[in-house]
Each structure stands twice: as C-alpha cells, then as structure tokens.
Design goal:
Elements: H1 2-20, H2 27-40, H3 42-59, H4 72-139, E1 143-148, E2 153-156, H5 158-164, H6 168-171, H7 176-180, E3 183-184, H8 190-200, E4 202-210, E5 216-227, E6 233-242, H9 244-306, H10 313-344, E7 350-353, H11 354-368, E8 374-378, E9 383-386, H12 388-405, E10 412-420, E11 425-431, H13 463-473, E12 478-482, E13 488-493, H14 497-500
Parallel strand pairs: 8-10
Antiparallel strand pairs: 1-2, 1-6, 3-4, 4-5, 5-6, 7-9, 10-11, 11-13, 12-13
Helix pairs in contact: 1-2, 1-3, 2-3, 2-4, 3-4, 9-10, 10-13, 11-12, 12-13
Length: 510
C-alpha cells in the first residue's frame, strides 16, 4: 500500500510539475501519508513518509535526480516532513481508534437497547397474560384457591369469596384447614390426598366444608400441582364447586327411583296376575265353548241327514248355514286355544335351521296341491337361535299365507331369504300374490282383523297374530310391506342367543 500510494502521488505531482515547478514538492505526499495512516496504520504511514521524502527529494527538489540528505537545508526539510508525517500518522491512528471505540460502544449500546426493548416487551406480554389470566379466574363461576408449599393461601378469586364469605384480605395467608374446616367423606383423608398429588399430580374429592357463617355444605374439589420451568413444584391450586343442590337432586332422584321401582314391581305383579287370569279365562272359555258348539253342529247334521224330508229347501239351506257357522266358530275357538298355548308355552332356545324348516313347510304345501304351478326360492343355511317348534309355527303361517294369497296367480313365486340391517339380520317371506293396501297395514296383526273377504280367502284372522306373538317372545320384531296386486313381503328379526335371554317369557305388551 505504501509503495503504491507513493507512486500515485509522484505521478500526480509530475503532472502538476509544469504548474508548480519547485514549489510545493511535499504537498501531495502529506495527503498520501494521511490516507495510508488511516487505512494501513502508523507502520505503513511511517514507510510512506520515508518513501515520500525520497521521491520528493529525487524528483522535485533542486538539484533533481539526486539525493541531498547531507545538505543542511534538505536535512531540515526532511526532518520537518518526517515530524509532520509522524504527527499525521499518529493523529490518524488515534482518530481511527477513537472512531472504532465509538462504533463499538455504539453497537454495544444498540444491542443493549434492543435487548432491553425485548425484555420490556416480554415483560409487558407476560404482565398482559397474567392480567388476562387473573381476569379469567376472577370471572369464572367456580371458586379457585391457590396455596404455597407451606399450605398458605396465595390466591382467592371472587367466586371463592362469594362461596365461603371470606374476603381476599381475610383469606390470604390462612391454611386450608383453617379456611375450610373440612370433613372428609367416603373414607378419604389427608395422607391419601397428599400421596395422590405426589404420584399423579392431581386429586379429586368430595368433602363437607364450612362457610364463614358456620353453615356446612358439600364441596367437590379438584386439586392440581403447579410447577415452574425447572419442573419444581411451587404451588397447588384447587377448584371448588358447591355440590349442595346436586346432592339434594341426587337424593330426590334416588327416592323417586326407589318409589318407581316399587311401583313397577307392584304393577308388574298386577299385570302378571291379570295376564295369568286372562289366559286361564280364555283357555277355560274356549274349552267350555267348544262342547256346545260341537253339539250344535252334530245335532244340526243329524237333522239335515235324518229329517231332511221334514224341511223344505229353505229350511235345509238354513241348516247348512248353521253347520258352517258352527264349524267356523269351532275353528275360531281352536285358533284361540292355539294362540293361548303359543303365549304360555316354555321357550326353549337352541340353534334352528330356518332353511330346513321352510323347505319342509313348502314341500307340504306343494303336496297339498300337486298340480299347482309354484316356484319356491329358499336361501340355504339360515341358522338362528330360538324355539324350533314355535319358529316352525311362524313359518307355517307366513308361508301358508303366501301360498293362499298366490292361489289365483298363474305361476306362484314364494321366496324365503334374509337381508342385512344395521343391528340384526331381517328374514323375509315374499310372494307375488294379491298383496294389500299399505293404508291398512296396521290391521294386519290385529286379532280377527282381515283385509280380504272370507269368501275369497278363508281364514280366521289369528295366524299373523300368532306369528307376531312368537317373534316378540324371541325378542324380535315383525313388519310387512306390500302393494295391491303386486305381492307382499313380511320381515322379522331374531336377536342372537345372548340378547334373547332378556325376552324369555311373555311377549312385550301382554
């Protein structure tokens, strides 16, 4: 840097030589010394000073192209130049160091200022957060109390003041025992609570506390430990809830539940007694009715066969009507007895192959009318848990109805299968018969209810009632879908063996 600076200054001085001549031979070199001192330090400035003197003496001082160091005049000028150069170098170095120190101090002050700003902002943020939390704690409806590790109260929110009656000034510094005067419930105690807090960091309990006025009340408390950033436990906080109203409601509910259970037991006993009486009455009446009905039929038949000559055509017709009516009445009584047996018989649950039962029933139906064209579609291996005898009766009624109501179809099609539902499988019997109007679907399972005339389709109106009672006894349900002249489908569900245990006995609603 020193050599380069001196060369540049020498070239500039040589360009100005026609103007300056012998005047100002050292002027430009002072600037070079100052620049090198600033950027290179005092050592470089010293070298620059010496080289500048040599260059000025050689090129621009008379006699030129000759070093005149021994000349007193030149020696004096050299000494002055060296002194001034050293002074410039020293001042430049000092100024440079002063500026560097000033910049360093400025940066340090700036960093400290930024750090201070961040600390102030962080403190403001923390203070705002603490104020917000304190505001939230002050606004919540549940009492909150904080205790230090010595068991002394350090925080008492407004809800706690309202609940216990102590102001914040009265409560702060007290222990939980002094403040709450609690009584432990359910076998709980203080060592148990401390052990739970030590192990889990949380404790939940129900105690009896006492207010400032001496009134006792039930309290539900949830206590948690608070830790600092180092994981050290510094406090524990309890959230306290007044359970007096809840306890009162629980007592009332328990009392009502007990009363309701008693009423249910009494009502159930009454219903069971009435049901047994009704079954016995129906059974007895049915037996007592069948004998006179059969007598009427028998004597009428004797009159028609043995005393036909005593009656004209109208009389014989009336005797026929009496015989038909007595037969129908006997069938009705038989169906009622059958329904009574279905309702009263013991339910014996076991695995039952519905497909096998359905096939046996359809084979019997086909054998009863071998010339009738019919197609039976039966899904294979449909196994359920239930009473085989009762389920056979249900399928006989459902498939028998399908066979009956497809009698006028050129080619009957009767299907037995299953579909999947959300909770249970639904088994179905579907036909392509005359169907029914869905507006009257509610009458299908009513006793003696019929949607078609007896002249067209004979029957007593007991079959579907019997099926419904069997399905209900198994804990299932039954329903139907259909349309006029478009066939009908009857669905039923059968819960598994575990679910059926709750339904063993009489069908619901009877």
């Amino acid at each position: 840097m020193a050599v380069f600076s001196v060369i540049v200054a020498t070239l500039l001085r040589w360009l100005l030589d026609p103007v300056w001549g012998e005047n100002h031979p050292m002027l430009l070199y002072y600037g070079v010394v100052a620049i090198t001192a600033w950027y290179g330090g005092w050592r470089v400035a010293l070298i620059t000073t010496i080289l500048s003197w040599v260059a000025a003496d050689w090129f621009f001082m008379e006699p030129r192209h000759k070093l005149n160091i021994l000349d007193p005049k030149h020696s004096l000028a050299c000494g002055i130049f060296l002194a001034i150069g050293l002074a410039i170098a020293g001042l430049s170095e000092a100024a440079k160091r002063a500026i560097h120190r000033a910049e360093t101090n400025t940066r340090r002050a700036w960093d400290e200022s930024e750090l201070l700003k961040r600390e102030i902002n962080e403190r403001k943020r923390v203070e705002a957060e603490l104020k917000f939390r304190a505001y939230v704690l002050a606004q919540i409806s549940e009492a909150v109390a904080a205790f230090d590790m010595n068991g002394r109260l350090t925080y008492w929110n407004p809800a706690a003041q309202r609940l216990y009656g102590y102001t914040e000034a009265e409560a702060l510094g007290r222990t939980a025992e002094e403040l709450f005067q609690y009584q432990w419930l359910g076998g709980q105690n203080l060592p148990m609570a401390l052990e739970a807090l030590r192990k889990d960091g949380f404790w939940h309990s129900e105690n009896i506390h006492k207010r400032k006025n001496g009134q006792e009340f039930f309290v539900e408390s949830s206590t948690s430990l608070l830790q600092n950033e180092h994981g050290e436990v510094i406090s524990y906080v309890s959230v306290l809830r007044d359970m007096t109203e809840r306890r009162r409601v629980e007592r009332e509910l328990a009392q009502w539940s007990q009363e309701l259970d008693q009423r249910v037991k009494e009502r159930t006993a009454q219903l069971e007694s009435a049901y047994k009486e009704m079954e016995a009455f129906c059974y007895s009446i049915s037996h007592d009715l069948r004998a006179p009905i059969r007598s009427i039929h028998s004597f009428t038949q004797i009159m028609r066969d043995d005393y036909a000559a005593a009656f004209d055509e109208a009389g014989r017709k009336m005797l026929g009507i009496v015989m038909q009516s007595s037969l129908r009445m006997d069938q009705l009584i038989y169906d009622l007895l059958y329904l009574s047996r279905v309702s009263r018989s013991e339910l014996r649950s076991q695995p039952v192959n519905l497909s096998t039962l359905a096939r046996a029933v359809t084979d019997a139906l086909q054998s009863s009318e071998p010339r009738r064209a019919a197609e039976f579609v039966i899904a294979p291996d449909l196994v359920v848990h239930g009473d085989e005898r009762l389920l056979r009766i249900a399928l006989e009624n459902l498939l028998g109805n399908a066979w009956k109501f497809t009698g006028r179809i050129p080619r009957s099609r009767i299907e037995f299968g299953v579909i999947s539902q959300a909770e249970h499988c639904a088994y179905f019997v579907r036909d392509n018969g005359i169907g029914f109007d869905m507006a009257y679907v509610g009458k299908l399972f009513g006793t003696f209810q019929r949607l078609h005339s007896e002249a067209d389709f004979p029957g007593t109106g007991i079959g579907l009632v019997t099926v419904q009672r069997i399905i209900h006894r198994h804990g299932g349900r039954i329903w139907a879908e259909g349309a006029t002249n478009q066939g009908a489908t009857f669905y039923f569900t059968l819960p598994d063996a575990a679910e059926q245990k709750a339904f063993v006995g009489n069908p619901p609603g009877l």
